[in-house]
Amino acid sequence: xxxxxxxxxxxxxxxxxxxxxxxxxxxxxxxxxxxxxxxxxxxxxxxxxxxxxxxxxxxxxxxxxxxxxxxxxxxxxxxxxxxxxxxxxxxxxxxxxxxxxxxxxxxxxxxxxxxxxxxxxxxxxxxxxxxxxxxxxxxxxxxxxxxxxxxxxxxxxxxxxxxxxxxxxxxxxxxxxxxxxxxxxxxxxxxxxxxxxxxxxxxxxxxxxxxxxxxxxxxxxxxxxxxxxxxxxxxxxxxxxxxxxxxxxxxxxxxxxxxxxxxxxxxxxxxxxxxxxxxxxxxxxxxxxxxxxxxxxxxxxxxxxxxxxxxxx
Length: 313
Description:
This protein is 37% helix and 21% strand. It is α/β, with parallel strands linked by helices. The protein folds into 2 domains: 28-113 and 262-298, D-Maltodextrin-Binding Protein, domain 2 (3-Layer(aba) Sandwich); 115-261, 3-Layer(aba) Sandwich (D-Maltodextrin-Binding Protein, domain 2), CATH 3.40.190. It is globular and about 65 Å long. The protein starts with a helix and ends in a 15-residue tail after the last strand.
């Protein structure tokens, strides 16, 4: 009886060990397998472009991507629901302390610089703002369009973001050190829906990620640009026409546009898995060229090598 019990315990223990080893066994490599990642919805166009090229080259790799608010992306990373996130900030102290408590060293890479763009409906011709005016609009100190332009026929100024916890909102809060906002703020649910919202609300300022309108070769972007005007912004109190800057690639690169921000990937992988492989692709020459073509500023500027041979005219 004791021998039977001993054999049973041995077999049961071996089964548990086998299951544990199988569960912990790596099922993906840098170019193979399936993982989940998350990205702030503001960066969806550029991430979709990266995934399209990466997937066409590594067809045995499947990356399931969740597009949501920046805050929720961090939550998923902390809860180990995703391997990698794409966001506009580095982890804060609380998040770093959690990773430290779990003996996790997050890998943080800057992949690009983009901007937050302010837009209005095509029917709204008031497309110039100073940073001071924007701050006052955000806090309700300016609430009417005729306070911006005395000839405006529009009334109450509204503001619409993609999401209450998005990186677009967080950037404006950080720049202007805001804790409270005007009550005339709405959330549309996504950057694309912000553009749609403006069509029936011409008195509203939309706040979106610039990469939704930066790739002017993209047919979808061309359609967006037919519906909206991009607001140019000046940091000066009494600007001339030339002091107003739009969120174009060159102005972001030169740091002239005041609402620019960096884009980061943050990974919790402790080995060379598919998240590491995808991140390496984004940071490589092909990934950085995709960022450049999309109208954003690459973290590592792609270059051309020109060889001049003797005897060439």
